[in-house]
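Quick note —
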Amino acid sequence: MARDYTVLVPVDGSPGSLRALAVACQRVKASRSGGRVVALNAQQPMPPNRFAPVADIRDHHERMAAEVFRKVDRVARREGVPVIRQMVVGLPAEVILREARRTRAAEIVMGTRGLGKLGGLLLGSVAMKVVQLADVPVTLVR
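Predicted structure written out below.
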């Protein structure tokens, strides 16, 4: 792996996403030339309304990201690999694909299912869309 080798890991705090993060950290740690791990928390947008002003929605997203990143930090410490943390609001599959291009990720490592309402599906819709549309290899971790 080259020094600029980037592994993008979508994280939502689910066990599958944290296992994917551990796998990505282990890959980077095992490589001789290093690389970097970017933990991406892609959150569904919440439309503003008169009961939830924009500032409250922003605070909600930041609180959710902080909760996820506490879990990310535990995995990163356990694996001994620094992890770049990033939160973006948008449709998760679109955000993941866009951020993979922006960060020039060499690969995406992600869980097969997240915390969505249909978590019991064999392969989550976000993972399916990313696998179908990504420009880089995608590793799915159960």
